[in-house]
């Protein structure tokens, strides 16, 4: 009986979450959410939430010219899940000017415990690592700050052997942005297939390209698409010339492996 009674609050909470999800979400971490809203109002900082992350800048207001070079981004780990940009951005901005700040978010509105900060130069990123790694952001929470790997290449294996570099460049140019270069080689897994190495101008561009290729209705009909160690089912289409006209034809292939490294 005691065990049944003990589970009643959990059942009530579950029912509440299922039937009043927005009310429940709004109740999570209310104090810090209110502090963030007040900070955004006073500071005029604008945040954009997309693809499970909340982003400032990229570029920031008043920025002109090219994005900062590779090596200017840092990884921030061991964050308390209830802290937000009103605490984090001023802290990391105190070291140097931020080009971009990305906080990874959960559906409930808590952060996922890590973030990325991109500075305007490599030197500023190095200073942030030196000064803030081990910083106790809250009692019991010493944050990890290190250089982000910023992997910016996709390796596409299992492409049809007849595809040309120009065709692939055209496809990727329509489906993704930030393509720097495309190199096409014979696949090591099959003599009849091709392997492409696609370089992007940033890690973010490569990650967004992977997402677009996974989710979009692209030009290939392939069995699977994988990212690093994960493999996700996906159906693609190939737009092919047939008797002088373009028609959609399904192409059967074994695997397309997309790895950002």
Concise description?
The chain is α+β, with helices and mostly antiparallel strands and 261 residues long. It contains 7 helices and 16 strands. The protein is globular and about 60 Å long.
Unreliable parts: 1-5, 216-261
How many strand segments? 16
Mean pLDDT: 76
Please tally the helical runs, counting DSSP H or I stretches of 4 or more residues: 7
Quaternary state of the chains: single chain
N- and C-termini, Cα separation: 55 Å
Structural class by secondary-structure content: alpha+beta
Largest sheet: 6 strands, antiparallel
The coarse overall form would be: globular
Encode the helix/strand succession as letters.
HHHEEEHEEHEEEEHEEHEEEEE
Q: Biggest sheet, strands in spatial order?
A: 1-2-4-5-3-8
Q: DSSP strand (E) fraction?
A: 25-35%
- Rg, Cα atoms, Å: 23 Å
Percent range of helical residues = 25-40%
């Amino acid at each position: 009986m005691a065990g049944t009674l003990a589970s009643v609050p959990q059942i009530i909470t579950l029912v509440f979450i299922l039937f009043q999800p927005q009310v429940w979400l709004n109740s999570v971490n209310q104090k810090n959410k209110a502090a963030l809203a007040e900070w955004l109002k006073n500071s005029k900082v604008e945040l954009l939430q997309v693809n499970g992350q909340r982003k400032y800048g990229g570029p920031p207001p008043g920025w002109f010219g090219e994005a900062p070079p590779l090596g200017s981004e840092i990884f921030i780990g061991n964050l308390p899940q209830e802290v937000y940009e009103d605490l984090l951005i001023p802290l990391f901005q105190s070291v140097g000017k931020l080009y971009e700040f990305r906080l990874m978010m959960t559906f409930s509105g808590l952060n996922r415990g890590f973030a990325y900060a991109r500075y305007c130069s490599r030197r500023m990123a190095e200073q942030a690592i030196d000064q803030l790694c081990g910083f106790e952001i809250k009692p019991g929470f010493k944050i990890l700050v290190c250089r982000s790997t910023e992997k910016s290449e996709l390796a596409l294996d299992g492409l049809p052997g007849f595809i040309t570099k120009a065709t692939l460049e055209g496809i990727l140019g329509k489906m993704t942005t930030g393509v720097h270069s495309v190199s096409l080689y014979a696949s090591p897994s099959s003599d009849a297939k091709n392997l492409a190495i696609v370089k992007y101008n940033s890690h973010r561009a490569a990650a967004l390209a992977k997402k677009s290729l996974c989710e979009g209705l692209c030009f290939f009909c392939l069995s699977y698409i994988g990212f690093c160690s994960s493999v996700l089912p996906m159906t693609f289409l190939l737009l092919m010339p047939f008797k002088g006209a373009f028609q959609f034809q399904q192409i059967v292939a074994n695997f397309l492996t997309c790895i950002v490294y």
